[in-house]
Amino acid sequence: MDFLLQRKECKMVILSVCSQMLSESDRATLPVIATVFDKLNHEYKKYLDAEQSYTMAVEAGQSRSSPLLKRPVRTQAVIDQSDMYTHVLSAFTEKKEMPHKFVIAVLMEYIRSLNQFQIPVQHYLHELVIKTLVQHNLFYMLHQFLQYHVLSDSKPLACLLLSLESFYPPAHQLSLDMLKRLSTANDEIVEVLLSKHQVLAALRFIRGIGGHDNISARKFLDAAKQTEDNMLFYTIFRFFEQRNQRLRGNPNFTPGEHCEEHVAFFKQVFGDQALMKPTTF
């Protein structure tokens, strides 16, 4: 690896070596893998520091007074988190023959190395860890990683946890706690979940904070329809019918809610008879 880091056109070769050391046939030991990650992140950190120094100098106006100031050149030896995720780790986690404990150990080793060099860990690496843990039903380990902040708080991570509630009910509270620590606005959380087609998770979240009487039915029905899951659309449509009945004594949508196209779609798929009938007391 030391030899490769000195070469000019070495990036894809380095990534190939990393993939090879994580393959079933040429699997390296964890200490060796850790050493390789540290060597790569040492180069990565050097580049990040140089880039930061250059940016600060430019902002301070030094570039005009010092013509020798040049933007640092990103060499082929700089392997960043995106490179590792795309070319090595993502494919590695999908190998069925690999023991899951080894997979998780490797992911955590890479995160440890980034932390050691004080490089902020990108949320997609934490997501990869969580998805791997969930895939193998290692919820106790997931809980520990979150409890002891092994996985850093982030909005994408919190939204991923919200979407896991059906597999692992405590994930809902874990995500809410994380969002509170991040001081995230509730409507922003809903928008993120809807954009990821996590319509039920968004509805559960808004109900959990007691805001479900004021949310836009159309926004949720739009999102449900985009998933092309008719049963999900039915569930969301029925929820808002029940809300209308509870708040107004009638399940029908008012013209101001602009849900006409969704009512028409519901009738087309499920028939007029599936619409809720007003209940009188």
UniProtKB/TrEMBL annotation:
This is Regulator of MON1-CCZ1. Residues 7-255 form the Mic1 domain. It comes from Rousettus aegyptiacus (Egyptian fruit bat). It comes from the Eukaryota. The lineage of its organism: Eukaryota, Metazoa, Chordata, Craniata, Vertebrata. GO terms for cellular component: late endosome membrane; lysosomal membrane; Mon1-Ccz1 complex. One of its GO terms (biological process) is regulation of autophagy. InterPro entries: RMC1, RMC1_C.
